[in-house]
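Internal QA ticket QA-208
Title: Verify multi-chain structure generation after dependency bump
Assignee: T.L.

Test input:
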Amino acid sequence: KQEVTQIPAALSVPEGENLVLNCSFTDSAIYNLQWFRQDPGKGLTSLLLIQSSQREQTSGRLNASLDKSSGRSTLYIAASQPGDSATYLCAAAYYGNNRLAFGKGNQVVVIP
Amino acid sequence: NAGVTQTPKFQVLKTGQSMTLQCAQDMNHEYMSWYRQDPGMGLRLIHYSVGAGITDQGEVPNGYNVSRSTTEDFPLRLLSAAPSQTSVYFCASSYSGGLGLGNTEAFFGQGTRLTVV
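Actual output:
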């Protein structure tokens, strides 16, 4: 079964610290992995998409890596700010399966 | 550019009533999908469509119906609402070039919060 796991479910960090969020997936037959942000009461916003042929993607303070062999992706947010407080979800796209498999998310609070 | 638009934003239904949740996108995306989001359960796929005239079931299709007569619209119908269908519903779309789910970022609507009493 193709499963995506995000642990821990919730975490808090002091402002200015670097955030590291992990996403694990079963089955290495993925062709991309996306990271999303969800604010309370809102929809999901795509942050980064990594193709299976890539090792990482960067956008501003955000960097996401992908290691298919270990079944792991990491989202790194540098110098966290209170505005980074949100839930972060990862989703994998698998070959032969017309759907995204979502993790349950990491709820992040950045403490001023 | 409106992106993905869902209506209504909030809805309260009585058990047994039917209704349609609307979803429209203006990005000419072939792939569209409906999810429900429940505490502790994460996002679960209800139905999806890879193009006009083509729909398929996701993980939790029972009690829901969809159709895709145009590229832009993908309505979700609740046939006979039950309290178990109380949830937040999200519509999403992505460009696929006619290749199933495709390999591009997904765009989500703002959600419909449905309560069935």
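Spot checks passed. DSSP finds no helices and eleven strands in chain B.
Status: verified.
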